[in-house]
Amino acid sequence: MNAVGTRVFRIALRLTTLVVGISAVCLVLGGAGIYLWSSAASDAAPVTISLTADKLEKAFWDVYLLPKRDLVTTPAAPHDDTSTTFVIEQGETLWSVSLRLESAGLIADSTVFRRVVQAEGLDRQIEAGAYTLRPSMTMHEIMQELQVGRVPDVLVTIPEGWRLEQVARKLYQEGVIRSEQAFIDEARRPRSGYAALHGMPASPRAGVEGYLYPETYRFDTGSLPGDVVDRMVSVLASEISSAMVDQAIRADLTMYQVITLASIVEREAIVDHERELIASVYLNRIKEGMPLQADPTVQYGKGCQEGSDGELVCWEPLTQEEYVSAVSDYNTYLHDGFPPGPICSPRIASILAVLEPADTDYLFFRTKNDGSGEHVFARTYEEHLRYGEIYGGIGPSGE
Predict the structure, then answer these.
(1) In sequence order, what are the residues at sequence separation of 6 or more whose Cβ sits closer than 8 angstroms to the Cβ of residue 246?
(2) Which of 16, 232, 318, 356 fits a disulfide with 322 by CB distance 3.0 to 4.6 angstroms?
(3) Please, what sign has the CA dihedral across residues 302, 307, 310, 312?
(4) Ordered per-residue pLDDT tens for the chain, 399 residues
């Protein structure tokens, strides 16, 4: 290209750039004019028009969205009214929220959704929380829901020593879940990926029984059962360190066996200082090849019954006959070794008691029956029987 041609080309390029720039400005100003004129015309009182930066920005996005109107006004799935709990994390950006909305099938285009939010000037007003959304909602409806439709949450305390059915009933009564059975079914589905699940059988009889960590939680009402289960299991997983897993391995135990024993300790120990002593008894019995003969395992095998007040009755005192008449794989009077799995949710103190038991040669214990919750421990069965004459109680462990 000669010098004249090059000069003509550069002039043409500059003119094109100028025309594009002027067109963009005219587009924005035109859109702003239309927006401001319509705003003024809708008000009977005289309006003073001022082109603020916010109004110009809104006008720009309104013009930008005109050819994408169908995406804005048509739901991602017009006939799908399935409710979905959508959680926005603290500090999450509009960009991240919009991408997740699209991935969840709640909107058709994440970029267009961001522009809709920006056009309304609401990009700084989306708050962290849980929201109930449906694929049949338009982008505007979803945007409004994210402003005002936060799902209320509830504070719920899960006590230590509860079994799965009791946890499900409590969560249902507090409105955290909509179905007890759906929660139980989800909790019995095998899970993996947590250090705390080290050594769990591929298909555990009771799923994550024993792994629903006793704690005070803040849950959203109407939460998905799987989300609640994962949350509770993850709290236990966070309490179980790799050092604790190593301790279990050195003791020739899996964490599943540790938590199983800890669940028995949780049900037996009334006073905290006896946890390590009770753990030592069961570990000593295992070393001696003795049956565990733990009363709470018999109670667990009997299951729960509906009480007259609507509460579950799960840990009724046993009669002498029930030690052999209660037929269950969990009855450690009838079956040697560990029960099939944990019988309740133990706190971390009971888990540590199994990992770091008292150094004793005790093989028996029974309650003092004096209201203190304390037990008396024995090394021999004869000694245990003498304590029975003093303190009373039934069963080889005196419970």
Answers:
(1) none
(2) 318
(3) negative
(4) 555 454 544 545 444 544 444 454 455 445 545 444 444 444 444 444 444 445 555 555 566 666 667 778 889 999 998 888 888 877 788 899 999 999 999 999 998 898 888 777 777 667 777 788 999 999 889 988 887 767 778 899 999 999 999 999 999 999 999 999 999 999 998 776 666 677 787 767 778 999 999 999 999 888 899 999 999 999 998 999 999 999 999 999 999 999 999 999 999 999 999 999 999 999 999 999 999 999 999 999 999 999 887 789 999 999 888 988 999 999 999 999 999 999 999 999 999 999 999 999 999 999 998 989 999 999 999 999 999 888 876 555 544
Q: Are 273 and 167 in contact (CB under 8 A)?
A: no
Length in residues, the chain: 399
Question: Distance of CA 58 to CAs 38, 61, 118, Å?
Answer: 13, 5, 7
Among the listed residues 107, 104, 116, 119, the one whose alpha carbon sits nearest the alpha carbon of residue 75? 107
- Name the burial class of residue 140, with classes exposed (0-12), middle (13-18) and buried (19+) by CB atoms within 10 angstroms of its CB: middle
State in Å, rounded, how far the first CA of the chain is from the last one: 102
Q: Which residues contact 101 (CB under 8 A, 6 or more apart)?
A: 86, 107, 110, 113, 133, 142
* Domains of the chain, start order: 12-70 (no CATH), 75-148 (3.30.1490.480), 164-357 (no CATH), 363-399 (no CATH)
Amino acid identity of 287? K
Report which secondary-structure segment, H or E, holds 109: none
Chain centroid to Cα 278, Å, comes to 31
